[in-house]
Every structure is written in structure tokens, then in C-alpha cells.
Amino acid sequence: MMLRSAIILTTLIVFNKVRSFSNNSDDAEKYNVGGVLSDFESEKHFRLTISHLNFDQNYKTSRNMTYYGKTIRMDKNPIKTVFNVCDKLIDKRVYAVVVSHEQTSGDLSPAAVSYTSGFFQIPVIGISSRDAAFSDKNIHVSFLRTVPPYYHQADVWLEMLNHFGYTKVIIIHSSDTDGRAILGRFQTTSQNYYDDIDVRATVELIVEFEPKLESFMQHLDDMKTAQSRVYLLYASTEDAHVIFRDAGNYNMTESGHAWFVTEQALSANNTPDGVLGLQLEHANSDNRHIRDSVYVLASAIKEMMTNETITEPPKNCDDSGVNWESGKRLFHYLKTRNITGETGQVAFDDNGDRIYAGYDVINIRAKQKKLPVGKFYYDSGKATMRLKINDSQLIWPGKQKKKPKGIMIPTHLKVLTIEEKPFVYVRHLTDDEVQCMEDEVSCPLFNTSNGIENDFCCRGYCIDLLKALSQRINFTYNLALSPDGQFGHYILKNSSSSSLPPSPPRKEWTGLIGELVNERADMIVAPLTINPERAEYIEFSKPFKYQGITILEKKPSRSSTLVSFLQPFSNTLWILVMVSVHVVALVLYLLDSTLSYYFRSTLTPPVRFSPFGRFKLSHADSHEEKPLNLSSAVWFAWGVLLNSGIGEGTPRSFSARVLGMVWAGFAMIIVASYTANLAAFLVLERPKTKLSGINDARLRNTMENLTCATVKGSSVDMYFRRQVELSNMYRTMEANNYDTAEQAIEDVKKGKLMAFIWDSSRLEYEASKDCELVTAGELFGRSGYGIGLQKGSPWTDAVTLAILEFHESGFMEALDKAWIFHGNAQQCEQFEKTPNTLGLKNMAGVFILVAAGVAIGVGLIIIEVIYKRHQVKKQKRLDIARHAAGKWRGTIEKRKTIRASLAMQRQYNVGLNSHTGTISYAVDKRRYHRLGGHRGPENAWTGETDALRPRRCLEDTAKLKHSPKIHAPLPLLNKNRQPINLLPPRYSPGYTSDVSHLVV
């Protein structure tokens, strides 16, 4: 001891000489470092560390750079400590303050130093304060520490749980700031900083108690009913004493249990044997922490001087407006330090808390002996913390060498399911029924909104599977329906605390998954799809059924329009057939017709295109057959095409009949083709699906007339969220999504929804049950249905092995046949092959065509009747006019005859009076001998020769013969029966019998 004092004294003398030399230099760089320490030994070590720092050129920017230590003693009274800091440290212009704490006063005095220095932005380095309150930078703005806070022990807890393979724990903590901080640290770290989701520890139960408790019995009752037998305890030494006492009375410190405690609880005098606790390395070595804090400060000042200029700190506490900007920058440099010190690797997080702190793993033995069995240390090679425990040295509660399982396996489970045909059928119990049927299981629905329990019965694929599992692995169960009727989806919620750093949003689950995550259920037996989002929070067994995602749509209805009978031929073919009929008819007419002109001689026969136009040769006693006119040709062409009998109007020439045979062959082929195609279109045709699958362009770029949807918050919904290439489709689907699959399937049947995207097992069942529904495209997003369990559930392995055994034995295949297919697939296949019976809807167009033909025929006959009546009236008027004209012409002729006779008589009388004899008179006398000597009227027309008289007589006779309208007297016959013309001749060449121009 004397030697050590001498060394220190010598060092101080040398340091004073150096300081006096430095004071004589004008350009000396002085940096005062304050210290608020708990005892004289700490003050002395602080000064010695400063003196050693001045000789270490690695922490100085120049030889003139000098550090000076200014110390004061920590006072139990925080107010007095504040005044001492102002008067004895800030007045000396200190650049930083190193603070310890007085054992009896706790952290009140260090907090006072932090408040005072932080007000002027002077950094404070704590060497022993471990409360969580110092992590709050809103209060302790410039405080950092070389010791980790108590709640950082949660990191070591997680490493220990990972080492021993415990995944379900119960956390017991006090309701103060540090207790809540360690819980938050444990939960946040377990979710964010561990990549292996299979070993992530989950908290089954959180027990929070008030500090300074007197009894812990009421909390132990809840802990005994939990599955977990692993306890994480954060409590003060006094509270830990009460907890261990009461836990021992409940036999919860015996074999089968595991306790992990923090440093304070490890110090209780009744800590049970086998408890594992943590002990911070160098926790009570203030001198080591003083040295590390001084060197951390020197390293920060050196780097800051290299990069920027440091201004002088405040000189007193009187000026409240002083804001030392260099102090803020210096605190930033302090947080970025990472050096190797006497307490290990020294580094800080954003809150200024020490990281990379080492811990000893302590195992409590008999008589409170603390045996180190492991270390939590910094691995410099990997630059991370590692845990090393010697398992062979461990003694567990109950003095067991074997590690406890850490969980109590319950034999009675609460199982949840959900209505999803054909896996689960749900039936409501009527008022008359007391219990479910033999093949059903009671599955009440507890409504969380109104607290009413409704009685239901369940049966189906999953119910049979649950029965088989309970018998195979020996457990009992209570079955219930999902409270909100959904499988469950997550909702992001922010969890922030003023005393803790902000953490990323956490996921809160609803539906079946939420019940399991919140440990209100033990198992889910339902068509629960295995996906990454769910597997992060719950356990899954191996799939009991493999499936994928597909699309359900309604089969397109047959196009039974009024013109369905026209479907066998295209429009172009129909037009060509119509044109061909009339072209062939025209050619037949031309080949079989006569040229309508004659030579001037009436004896010339008509000229034809075909020399064999008549099959019967012309004889004197035979008549010529009529040729094929245009109307008959059209009638013949249509009659052959429609396969109707042709009674008349057939071709007569050889060339026309050859064309007729060719047309008949054409008609036979067309009619046969039409008949075959009509059967295919109207009877045997089965429509295909509208969509080709998930890659259909109409789905990827959804149009207004094509709606698709899935179920909200389902595994399919999560699948579309993950797929970036389906993001456009998902945005359209999201607005149309349904609450349940039943609603969506019903809308597909009604035609309100075009495509429903869902699990293939359910949609194949619906398609086999209703032949009007069909699944489109191939499966995508392949996955499987699994049994859901809590994280770390002891039943996971047993359920998985049982399901694998069911697959091998064929039990799962039997469930598929019994519940999913029902044999309906064969019925639909038979329905596809059976011809469809034609009805009025299919052939309505033909009947309408006949009705139209009848209507057209009636219309034409009406037109013909009207036209005939018009023609008859016109003919009557013409006949009346002709009769009137005939009478008028007869009257005119009679008058002319009378006038001519009178004229001849006058001339005759004149001739008699003159007694003049002529040749004409002699001839007239000979011709008209019956006139008794009277002269005829022929002499009234001069220039007429006797040769013309017989011809006129013949013409007049012919006219009288062919003119029935004029009733002239027949001519007299002589003895040789030759006609005798008694009428006077008409010699005027202008005479005519046509009086049609006189008709009005």
C-alpha cells in the first residue's frame, strides 16, 4: 500500500511539473474533465487516469494538448449536488462530466448531474447508473454510460432460450419503468432480430406485479394453469424473495420447471437451487469504468478536433440562455465510439447505452452458492455477441441434471373451426333438439360482440379428421366456431413508448389466427392454408391436403337466339347459297327458253338456244310443249334445294337437265352439311370456359364487364398481396372482395360475379356438385391445408406424425372420396356427353320463319285480290265503252248508208229525168236487177274498177264474221251458194270500221 501511494505521489509531482510547464506556453490546449464520484479512491483514480492520458500520444492531436481533472464528491442530497456542479465544475469550463452514484442514495444524484449538465449541452458519462430512465433522451439529452441498462438483459434471455430450445415462456416483471422496459425489449428483439422463426420465443403469459409486494399467491394460480414451465423473472432483491417463497409453496421451484432471473433477483437469499441468472462483468469495478469513460472522451475530442473546431464550454450557470453547440457535436462523437477498454468492447447505441457488455451465466447451487457455467461475450472475429454455456455443469430445479421440457402438455384442448364446405358443414340446433346427431360434433358459436352462445352442430371432412386425431394421439377437445367467422388477417399497429426507441409496426391478427396467437385456443382444425405470414406467428402441421388456387366461373349459356337455326353456316355461306339459287335459275331459264321473235312469215317456227328444246317433234296433229319460263326456273331451283316435289316447270332441254342434276347434287351436299352442323350446334355442343386461367389478359388488365374477387383477409388475398406482377389485378379485386366464400359462389351462380378466385378443393367440389359451374385454367399458388397450433405447442410433432400415417394408410384418400367428390364428377361428365334435348327456345326461329311465310303469303293473296278487283272493274268499264262504241259505230254506219242511198237516189232520179244512157247505168242495172230498174248507189263512186269489187266484198264478209259486236244481216246466197252483196259498196279509201278513238 505504501508503495502504491509513493508511485501515485511521484506521478502527481511529475504531472504538476508538466502542467506548470504547459502553463508557461501561450499556445497550450487545455481540456478540463469533470468528475462527480462516490469516494476518495474513485477521485484519486480519476486524476491518475487523466495524468496517464496526457502521456498517451494516441489520444492527442498535438504535444501541447493537455487534460485536467476537476472532481467533486457525490452528495446524497441531489440539490446540493446540483450547486456543486455549477460552482466547482461548470465554472472551470469542463468539456464533459464523469459521474458515479452513491450506493445509499441510488440514482437521484446522477440524475441531478445529468439534468444540470444537459441544460448546457455538456456530455455526461455514467459509470454505474443502469436505470431505464436514463435512456430517455427527451429528459437526459446528453447522458451516456459505460454500463448497460438492466433491460438489456432481455437480449441474453433470448440467447439462453435459443440455446436450450424453449419457445414458450412466462414473463414476471415489476410494474415500474425497468420492468416494462425489459418486457418491451424482449418482445421487440424476438420479432425483429432473429431470422429463424422456428425458434423464436413467444410469451404465453405476462405477470405484472406492484413493487414491494407482500404475497404472490394470486399470480401463481394463473401460472399453474398455463402450459409453459419456463419463467423469466425481473424483480428487485426484496420482491424476488417473496416470489421465490410463494413459488416454493406451490412446488413451482421443483423438477420440471426452469427459472431465468436478472442480477437483482439473483441476489435474493432464498433463490432456489438450479436457477440460472446473469451477472454483469465488472459491474462493481468503478475504476475500470472510470478509465474507459476518460479514454472514450479523449477519443471523441481528438476526432472532433480533426474534423471541426471546438468552442469553449459555458463558464457558469448564471446565463440560462447559453447553448453550447460544440457540446451537442461532442455527444454525437461520443455515441460513435467503439474501442477496446478494460471492461471489454465499449460501444454505444443511439440512446447512449452501452452495448457489447459481457455477462456471466450463474447457476445457483446448494447454500446459495453461485457457480458460473457460461459467458455472454463479445466475439471480435465476428463483431457480435455470443453465448457459451457448459451444459454438463448445470443443475436444474429439483437437483436434476436433465434439462426440463419447459412445458406441460395438456390433454384437453380447445379446438376452433370455421364453416367451409365440404370440410365443415354447420347446422343450427332447433328448439326441439337437445344434442347433435351421431355423425356430428357440437360446435357452439360464442359471439364476442353480445356475449351470446349459439348452439350448432358440425360435420364434414375436418370433423372426421379431428375425431381420428383425438383417437390416434389421445387427447380430448371442445370444438367451437370462429367468433368472427373469418380465417383471420393481420392489421398493422404502431407501438411506441416515450422511454423506448421507436419500433416498427406490429401485426395484430383477427379471426382464427388471432385466437391462436392470443392463446385463446390450442388448435385449429379447418381448411387453413399454410403461408409465410401465418407461419410466422403460429405452428403448422404437415399438410393433410395439397391444393392450389383456381378460378370458378359459370359456364357460358348456349346462344339460343331466334336465328339459332342459322348457326351451322356462316353469313358468307348463306349469302352464297342464296345467290347460287337465283344464278342457277337464271341459267336454266336461258338454256330452256325460246327467243321471242318471229320472222314476218307466219309459217316460220320459233328459234331456240337448244336445238333439242322440244322432246316431241312438231307434227300436224301435235302441239308444242311450253318452255321453262323464269318463274318456273326459280321455283325449280328452290324446290330442288329444299328437297320438295316438283310437279311442273321442269327443264326440257338436255343441257338444262344436266345443269339440274348438278344442282341437285349441290343441294344434297348443302342440306347434309347443314343437318350435321345443326345437330352439333344445338344438340351436342358443350360450351367452354370464358377464361384461360390466371394469365388471361382480361384478368391481368381487368375490364369493366369482367369482375373477379376473393375473400377478404384470406390466404388467397395474402397471395395476391405478395405477387408484384398481380398488383394491378389485386387493386381491382380488392374493392370486390367478399366476406365469405359462400356469398361469392352464390353470386357466381346468379351471374353477378364473373370469376371467383379461391382454393381449388372448395371450387372443385362446387363444380362437381353443380354442373353449370366450371373451374378455369391450371392451378397456381400451390400450397396445402394444415392443422394450426400455437407457437411451440407440444402437440405439433404428434399431429404431424399422425397425418403422415393417415396419408400412408389411405385414410385421407377415403375422406376425399366421401366428402369432396361424392361421385358428382362422373355425373357431370355423363351430362357433358348426353345430347341436349331441343326445345322451343332452340327452334323458335324456325317457327317464326314459318309464321312469317304464312303472313307474307296472306299479304300477297290480299294484294292479288285487290289487284284482281281493280282489273275486273277496269275490264267492265272497257267492255261498256266497247259496247257503246259498237252501237255508236252501227248508228254511224246506218246513217252513212242512208245518206249514201239518198244520194244515189237523187242521182238516179236526175238520170231518169235526163234520159241519158251510160255504160255504168247498164252495168248497174244488170247488177241490181231487183231494184226494178232503179239505179244502185255504186254509180255514186267514180273511178272504182270492177276488179276491186270482189275483194271488198270478201273483206266486208270477213269483218262481219269476226265482229260480233256489229249485228249486220247475213248476205244472200244465190243458187251456187255464192254470197250476193246487197249493200252498196264502199269505195272511199278513208273508210274504216275502227271507232275506238271515239270512246270517251
UniProtKB/TrEMBL annotation:
<feature type="site" description="Crucial to convey clamshell closure to channel opening">
    <location>
        <position position="691"/>
    </location>
</feature>
<keyword id="KW-0812">Transmembrane</keyword>
<feature type="site" description="Interaction with the cone snail toxin Con-ikot-ikot">
    <location>
        <position position="721"/>
    </location>
</feature>
<dbReference type="InterPro" id="IPR019594">
    <property type="entry name" value="Glu/Gly-bd"/>
</dbReference>
<feature type="transmembrane region" description="Helical">
    <location>
        <begin position="662"/>
        <end position="684"/>
    </location>
</feature>
<dbReference type="GO" id="GO:0017146">
    <property type="term" value="C:NMDA selective glutamate receptor complex"/>
</dbReference>
<keyword id="KW-0325">Glycoprotein</keyword>
<keyword id="KW-0460">Magnesium</keyword>
<dbReference type="GO" id="GO:0038023">
    <property type="term" value="F:signaling receptor activity"/>
</dbReference>
<dbReference type="GO" id="GO:0014069">
    <property type="term" value="C:postsynaptic density"/>
</dbReference>
<keyword id="KW-0106">Calcium</keyword>
<comment type="function">
    <text>NMDA receptor subtype of glutamate-gated ion channels with high calcium permeability and voltage-dependent sensitivity to magnesium. Mediated by glycine. This protein plays a key role in synaptic plasticity, synaptogenesis, excitotoxicity, memory acquisition and learning. It mediates neuronal functions in glutamate neurotransmission. Is involved in the cell surface targeting of NMDA receptors. Plays a role in associative learning and in long-term memory consolidation.</text>
</comment>
<feature type="signal peptide">
    <location>
        <begin position="1"/>
        <end position="20"/>
    </location>
</feature>
<comment type="similarity">
    <text>Belongs to the glutamate-gated ion channel (TC 1.A.10.1) family.</text>
</comment>
<keyword id="KW-0597">Phosphoprotein</keyword>
<dbReference type="Pfam" id="PF01094">
    <property type="entry name" value="ANF_receptor"/>
</dbReference>
<feature type="binding site">
    <location>
        <position position="534"/>
    </location>
    <ligand>
        <name>L-glutamate</name>
    </ligand>
</feature>
<dbReference type="Pfam" id="PF10562">
    <property type="entry name" value="CaM_bdg_C0"/>
</dbReference>
<dbReference type="GO" id="GO:0015276">
    <property type="term" value="F:ligand-gated monoatomic ion channel activity"/>
</dbReference>
<keyword id="KW-0406">Ion transport</keyword>
<dbReference type="InterPro" id="IPR018882">
    <property type="entry name" value="CaM-bd_C0_NMDA_rcpt_NR1"/>
</dbReference>
<protein>
    <recommendedName>
        <fullName>Glutamate [NMDA] receptor subunit 1</fullName>
    </recommendedName>
</protein>
<feature type="domain" description="Ionotropic glutamate receptor C-terminal">
    <location>
        <begin position="438"/>
        <end position="822"/>
    </location>
</feature>
<keyword id="KW-1133">Transmembrane helix</keyword>
<feature type="binding site">
    <location>
        <position position="759"/>
    </location>
    <ligand>
        <name>L-glutamate</name>
    </ligand>
</feature>
<feature type="binding site">
    <location>
        <position position="527"/>
    </location>
    <ligand>
        <name>L-glutamate</name>
    </ligand>
</feature>
<dbReference type="InterPro" id="IPR015683">
    <property type="entry name" value="Ionotropic_Glu_rcpt"/>
</dbReference>
<keyword id="KW-0472">Membrane</keyword>
<dbReference type="InterPro" id="IPR001828">
    <property type="entry name" value="ANF_lig-bd_rcpt"/>
</dbReference>
<dbReference type="GO" id="GO:0035235">
    <property type="term" value="P:ionotropic glutamate receptor signaling pathway"/>
</dbReference>
<dbReference type="InterPro" id="IPR049873">
    <property type="entry name" value="NMDA1-like_N"/>
</dbReference>
<keyword id="KW-1015">Disulfide bond</keyword>
<keyword id="KW-0628">Postsynaptic cell membrane</keyword>
<keyword id="KW-0732">Signal</keyword>
<keyword id="KW-0770">Synapse</keyword>
<dbReference type="GO" id="GO:0045211">
    <property type="term" value="C:postsynaptic membrane"/>
</dbReference>
<keyword id="KW-1003">Cell membrane</keyword>
<feature type="transmembrane region" description="Helical">
    <location>
        <begin position="843"/>
        <end position="867"/>
    </location>
</feature>
<feature type="binding site">
    <location>
        <position position="529"/>
    </location>
    <ligand>
        <name>L-glutamate</name>
    </ligand>
</feature>
<comment type="subunit">
    <text>Forms a heteromeric NMDA channel with Nmdar2.</text>
</comment>
<keyword id="KW-0407">Ion channel</keyword>
<keyword id="KW-0675">Receptor</keyword>
